[in-house]
């Protein structure tokens, strides 16, 4: 599934956080979205998943205009948005969460697939999700993208605040998620080097505008470093 934002402007009250931003997530590819703090990365993902209505511009799924679709309708169309906020049902068990994420009739298979991708979840199927560690909850949130067979997965800083070993597990999972070519990713990530290593295309946002679009090896290392002063790679 090809996903596109075309000349999108969006914001909050007086604040314009995104200005005529255009971005394409081609079918089966990984797109990294970079930019300094406050550049508008989260805003772009919120518009992409229907959480924030654009003031102008269009959202397209396989060239079909889906502007104005609710987040539920975009989920139905194949989008899955995973945020740093660990989007799981905290009072349900891991097993119940996975069943909720599965497509109807695929509950059993969904459980097996999730456990295969994240063995740690398999050890905790009966645990209440809200009592798991941050890393485990994030794995469960990511498993949602996998078991729901989403076509486009939007990932907002999913490795934020996690231990390095968990971050490695998450990146190994992302490799797996895109391996068969049926899923594409739009990735906002503080681990820029890791993100660029799996990205096919990269966009850079600065103060709400797309200032670079190309392949990772075309990125000017100095520009990258100066826009990410202090960020860990
Ligand atoms: N709910 C809100 N109300 C008002 N302004 C907001 C809101 N959310 C974000 N903004 C503003 O919109 C701009 C873009 O914010 P956004 O969170 O999209 O940036 P970001 O690139 O994701 O930043 P970071 O890397 O720090 O997470 C910022 O100036 C921010 O202060």
TrEMBL record:
SUPFAM superfamilies found in the cross-reference section: P-loop containing nucleoside triphosphate hydrolases
Organism per entry: Sporichthya brevicatena
Lineage, highest ranks first: Bacteria, Bacillati, Actinomycetota, Actinomycetes, Sporichthyales
Keywords annotated in UniProt: Amino-acid transport, ATP-binding, Nucleotide-binding, Transport
Database matches in Gene3D superfamilies: P-loop containing nucleotide triphosphate hydrolases
Pfam families per UniProt: ABC_tran
Signal peptide: none
Domain of life: Bacteria
Protein's name according to its UniProt entry: ABC transporter ATP-binding protein
GO MF terms, alphabetically ordered: ATP binding
Family: Belongs to the ABC transporter superfamily.
Xref: InterPro entries: AAA+_ATPase, ABC_transporter-like_ATP-bd, ABC_transporter-like_CS, BCAA_Transport_ATP-bd_LivF, P-loop_NTPase
ABC transporter domain span: 3-232
Keyword match Nucleotide-binding: yes
């Amino acid at each position: 599934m090809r996903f596109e934002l075309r000349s999108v402007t969006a914001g909050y009250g007086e604040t314009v956080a995104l200005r005529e931003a255009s971005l394409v997530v081609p079918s089966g590819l990984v797109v990294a979205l970079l930019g300094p703090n406050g550049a508008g990365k989260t805003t772009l993902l919120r518009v992409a998943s229907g959480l924030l209505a654009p003031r102008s511009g269009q959202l397209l799924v396989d060239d079909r205009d889906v502007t104005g679709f609710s987040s539920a309708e975009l989920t139905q169309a194949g989008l899955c948005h995973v945020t740093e906020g660990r989007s799981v049902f905290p009072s349900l068990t891991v097993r119940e969460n996975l069943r909720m994420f599965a497509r109807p009739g695929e509950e059993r298979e969904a459980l097996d697939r999730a456990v295969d991708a994240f063995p740690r979840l398999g050890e905790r199927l009966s645990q209440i999700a809200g009592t798991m560690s941050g890393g485990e909850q994030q794995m469960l949130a990511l498993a949602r993208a996998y078991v729901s067979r989403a076509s486009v997965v939007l990932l907002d800083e999913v490795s934020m605040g996690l231990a390095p070993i968990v971050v490695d597990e998450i990146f190994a999972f992302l490799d797996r998620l895109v391996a068969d070519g049926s899923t594409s990713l739009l990735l906002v990530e503080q681990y820029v080097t890791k993100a660029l290593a799996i990205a096919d295309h990269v966009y850079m946002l600065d103060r709400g505008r797309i200032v670079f679009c190309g392949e990772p090896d075309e990125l000017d290392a100095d520009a990258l470093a100066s826009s990410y002063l202090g960020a860990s790679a």
